[in-house]
Amino acid sequence: MRIPAHSVCTAIRDDIVAGVYERGGRLTEELLARRYGVSRVPVREALRTLEAEGFVVTRRHAGACVAEPTEQEAADLLELRTVLEPLAAARAAQRRTDAHLKVLRGLVRLGQERVRKGQGEDLRPLGGWFHETLAQASGSPGLITLLTQLRHKLAWMYVVGPPAAPAVSWSEHAAIVDAVARGDVERARTLTAGHAERATAAHRLRPSPRAGRVREVQHPVNTVSLRN
Fold this sequence. Notes:
Elements: H1 5-17, H2 29-36, H3 40-53, E1 56-59, E2 63-66, H4 71-95, H5 98-117, H6 123-136, H7 141-157, E3 158-160, H8 166-182, H9 185-200, E4 203-205
Antiparallel strand pairs: 1-2, 3-4
Helix pairs in contact: 1-3, 1-7, 2-3, 4-6, 4-7, 4-8, 4-9, 5-6, 5-8, 8-9
């Protein structure tokens, strides 16, 4: 069975974000194919996709290499988030479904409950799911794709600390959901813009990882979902 290139792409991207591959390091098709237990064809396709996304660059005499984003590029992406997330919230206020609202309200309840119990370690994934669901509620495939790619890149470039005031952060989430539920486009946009600006302070540039050579072991791509 041929493994789809998008599955290989996801596996390579996840390892780049996790720092498995050193920035600037070569990504040879042979090594990658052996590591993920696939042929070179899906690896080649995956590298083209990752180059389009900005995770990989092709260099003369070296071939595919992990990109080395500059501090300015990283700062630009963080600023871009403060533009795209409010746009997604505004669209969500117009296009959200009852199912989206149910999930968003459930995440807010969980987040506020974790804050009350002092379970800060659970807040980051909940916050990520909240913003991902908000993007999905925008009903804009292009915007959803951009925000997904942006989240991957920010996770690669930045270490994100906990919010200075988690109770305030989740109160802001609740207010955003209320605005979306009422269909108040401008309030949803404004609240999300302010929230995104304040969240920026928790981001610290990640030092360039120096993981050394990747162990040349087989690392099969998870194909369970392909059989369903």
